[in-house]
Amino acid sequence: MSTTMSVSEARAALSEILERVIGGEEVTLTRHGVAVAVIVRPDVLKVRRAEGVFEAAASVHDVLEQGRRGPLGSQPTISRKRAEVLVADVRTSRLGS
After folding, report:
1. Does domain 2-40 have CATH number 3.40.50.1220?
2. Which end of the chain has a smaller Cβ tally under 10 Å, C or N?
């Protein structure tokens, strides 16, 4: 269940809002009719954030899979000289020089 109230109303009813949230409700606070905040239990917020992270991870996974399955381009994306410079830089970094 969700409740909507103005910020002014919320100031006067903080204890009631907290009890509602503890009971599982979401309370949306509005200012001039525009939603500015939603009060939810911390466990609900954690789940929602985790869902977003999992969705992002799935998206990255899909992109990587497409890259693995797709054909390689016929032309290199960097020149041979640039590749050699990059490899030399990596080797230098590994040696600590």
Report:
1. no
2. C
